[in-house]
Write a structure and sequence with these properties.
The complex is a heterodimer of chains A (441) and B (312). With 441 residues, chain A is of the alpha/beta class. Chain A is 48% helix and 12% strand. Chain B has 312 residues and is mainly alpha-helical.
Chain lengths: 441, 312
């Protein structure tokens, strides 16, 4: 599908108003400089030679390849500005790198600003770009604004969501008599018990990772009608009898349906366990399917994706794993970096780029809701639904520093794991609530 | 021009005879030479150890979030930590981890050295092989350990199942107790060669005469070990143990790669917690306070070490 876009000519970058204005000013200064001497004229010609763009490496390699081979050269051809694409290793090292860029005021000009709540103050306002892109491409999903918009200003432009859904072995589910993916958490537990009895336990990550643990534990909690904080982020909402029910459920699920190891799993562990046929179901992005199709074709055929089940409140939820791009205020020329960001988000560049990644990064734009790109593979479609029912882990509160602290101290995740490893449910919840109160003060 | 030259020449001739300044002689003066030799390492230490250390101390007295100015809070961060259950768990974990791993490494290292001190075929190759855990970068070897400890596909559990010792092996990283045992085991594996080789070096300095005279006095193998080998080795063991405690106390990579401090913080060490707070949660001041809390314990050990070395 995406091949349609690939051959097309890249559009010329649209200059922002600010740039046009500054260009005029510079041109005028340049004209004056001819008379005024070398200093002014040198400034008039000032234009960055290159822009550094940092991004964590993509699981779908083609996404990075498309950027390097198609987009970067096209931008250079159009503007003369070279794009240095700095790929950061996946696996948790990107955030410390970004933090040190911010602290040292050097490094990339713009980046995939992971955990941007840590350093929003060091990002420039990109409201003009975000609003323009939203208007042009069907409007933004409201949820992402809890992250990208801070005090009424867009501090980053959302690029895509790495969807997380249930990944399961259709063949084993069929064998166990589970013909369709469970619709409720109770049915999910039942299915898990059956599959574990057949030697195919579930493997639901619960360790100190940053995606595959949050992506099912938070939606589960929400579908019990509980959120961690209230909308204003002032009141701890976790302290509820429904939380106890959710924790009891996870305890049962872990003991009766899961592989014992999953309680300590970091993010890569469930991929490994799934691909080595040790588990029949987990919550993950579609990286497992990508690997299986590439390396284990037989397994590739029997992997299916299901949506997170519904809870007692009759709703289903998914956790958003956002990719957002921001421009650093320390950049030598933030305006040039913004112009590049605007150009990247232009549908002429953006659509083929997103398509090259097989929708692994799903746009937070309603214009893509029914896009033909979703039809590349029927098993990719659930990720669109996941976006529709997706919430940030801070939901309904904004994703701020305090939220970051909760995530990085695994307060909510460890509430579940403590209960699974012997702490009484009430005590585990009380401890989490106490820590939340301290953090949100 | 020439007048000036002449004038200066005349001046030079008129000056009283003085030993000409020679750079070589200056450099060879001991007071100069010793400072010259000491300056580069001192500068190096100041830049790469002193600066970060003192900056860390400074930060621990401030509330300092990433990309924000610092606010002085005095001992506020330490007060916050004293009420933080995760911090105390990290302290307990670190002490347990360091104590058990160090005892295992010291005992195992001594045994390793005693075996390596015997003559046998392929001795040199074996010695070189035993150094491998120490040489391979920790992150790499820890990734290998991830595979070894895998519940279904891992080497350990496969061996247990194939040999018929168990129908299913334990979950090495899946319960709080087993996860702690596993990280201690991997740390011991990695640190053993350091002890082994250092103690072996110590063993080889023990004069043969001592053993001979002990044998003449009727000492058996155990007697010779107890009264000759062990006392002669004590200084080496003491120093190696102290170094090892410092290194183990600060261990980060192994836990970060293997468990990330989980499950339920059961393997969170002070180093990994300091990292999570500073780099993850962006609380530079609080993270520095955790890191600084490690210093008193280590400081005490270093004082002991210095006193011991002086005594000798």
């Amino acid at each position: 599908m995406h091949a349609t876009y690939r051959g097309k000519r890249m559009a010329q970058p649209t200059q922002s108003k600010a740039t046009r204005r500054s260009f005029l000013k510079l041109a005028a200064a340049g004209a004056a400089g001819v008379a005024a001497g070398p200093w002014v004229s040198r400034n008039a010609q000032a234009k960055p030679v290159s822009i550094t763009f940092a991004r964590e490496s993509s699981y779908v390699k083609n996404f990075d390849v498309h950027f390097q081979n198609v987009m970067a050269p096209a931008y250079e051809k159009a503007t003369g500005i070279k794009i240095e694409y700095q790929i950061q290793a996946a696996g948790g090292s990107a955030v410390p790198q970004l933090v040190s860029m911010v602290e040292n005021k050097s490094g990339a000009d713009l980046a995939w600003v992971q955990q941007e709540w840590l350093y929003r103050d060091a990002l420039v306002d990109v409201s003009d770009i975000a609003e323009e892109v939203g208007k042009q491409q069907g409007g933004w999903y409201d949820e992402i604004k809890l992250l990208s918009v801070d005090k009424g200003k867009w501090k980053s432009v959302p690029n895509g969501n790495i969807g997380q859904v249930m990944v399961y072995r259709k063949d084993w589910f069929d064998e166990a008599g589970v013909k369709s993916f469970p619709e409720t958490w109770d049915a999910f537990l039942e299915a898990g018990i059956k599959l574990k009895a057949k030697g195919h336990p579930f493997g639901m990550s619960m360790g100190h990772g940053f995606a595959d643990n949050y992506s099912w534990l938070y939606p589960l909690l929400w579908s019990y009608g509980v959120t961690v904080m209230d909308k204003t982020a002032k009141k701890v909402a976790l302290d509820s009898s429904e939380t106890a029910k959710a924790v009891e459920y996870v305890k049962r699920l872990y003991k009766e349906a899961c592989i014992e190891d999953c309680i300590g799993w970091l993010d890569p562990a469930n991929n490994k366990a799934f691909l080595t046929s040790q588990i029949s179901c987990t919550n993950n992005a579609y990286s497992i399917m990508v690997s299986a199709k590439r390396d284990l074709p037989d397994m590739g055929k029997v992997i299916a994706h299901g949506l997170n089940p519904k809870g007692p409140n009759g709703q289903r939820y998914h956790a958003l794993v956002p990719v957002t791009h921001g421009v650093f205020a320390h950049s030598k020329d933030p305006q040039a970096a913004k112009d590049f960001l605007r150009w990247m988000m232009d549908p002429k560049q953006y659509r083929p780029w997103i398509a090259s990644g097989d929708m692994y990064f799903a746009p937070y734009l309603h214009g893509f809701d029914k896009a033909p790109e979703w039809d590349i593979e029927p098993r990719v479609k659930p990720f669109q639904k996941a976006l529709e029912t997706g919430k940030l882990t801070s939901w309904p509160a904004p994703a701020n520093r305090q939220h970051g602290e909760v995530v990085n101290r695994w307060i909510v995740i460890d509430m579940f794991t403590k209960a699974c490893t012997g702490t009484p449910v009430k005590a585990a919840i009380a401890e989490a609530v106490k820590q939340l109160k301290t953090i949100y003060g | 021009m020439s007048k000036i030259l002449e004038a200066s020449r005349a001046g030079a001739l008129a000056a009283p005879a003085r030993r000409p300044f020679r750079i070589r002689a200056f450099l060879e003066r001991e007071s100069v030479f010793s400072w010259l030799m000491v300056t580069p390492p001192v500068l190096f230490l100041l830049a790469f150890l002193g600066y970060p250390f003192f900056y860390g101390v400074y930060l621990s007295f401030f509330e300092r979030e990433v990309a924000r100015p610092a606010t002085f809070v005095g001992l506020g961060n330490f007060v916050t930590l004293s009420n933080d259950p995760i911090f105390w768990q990290a302290v307990r974990n670190t002490l347990l981890f360091t104590a058990v791993a160090t005892v295992l490494k010291a005992g195992g290292g001594l045994a390793m050295a005693l075996v390596m001190n015997q003559s046998f075929r392929m001795k040199a190759v074996t010695r070189a092989m035993l150094l491998l855990p120490f040489i391979v970068p920790t992150v790499l070897s820890t990734v290998a350990w991830q595979w070894i400890l895998d519940p279904g596909m891992g080497l350990f559990n496969r061996l247990l199942v194939v040999s018929g010792l168990a129908t299913t092996g334990p979950s090495w990283l899946g319960t709080p107790t087993m996860a702690m045992i596993s990280i201690i085991m991997v740390n011991t594996w990695r640190g053993l060669p350091f002890f082994g080789i250092s103690i072996l070096a110590g063993l080889q300095t023990i004069p043969v005469d001592l053993h001979e005279s002990a044998t003449i006095d009727g000492a058996g193998t155990w007697g010779r070990f107890r009264y000759v080998t062990l006392p002669s080795l004590l200084p080496v063991i003491f120093i190696v143990t102290t170094f090892s405690i410092v290194i183990t106390f600060f261990d980060f990579q192994l836990v970060y790669v293997l468990t990330g401090g989980g499950p339920a913080n059961s393997t969170h060490l002070m180093a990994t917690y300091a990292y999570s707070l500073s780099m993850g949660a962006g609380q530079m001041g609080l993270g520095s306070a955790v890191a600084l809390s490690m210093v008193p314990v280590l400081g005490l050990l270093l004082v002991l070490l210095t006193l011991y070395v002086r005594k000798d």
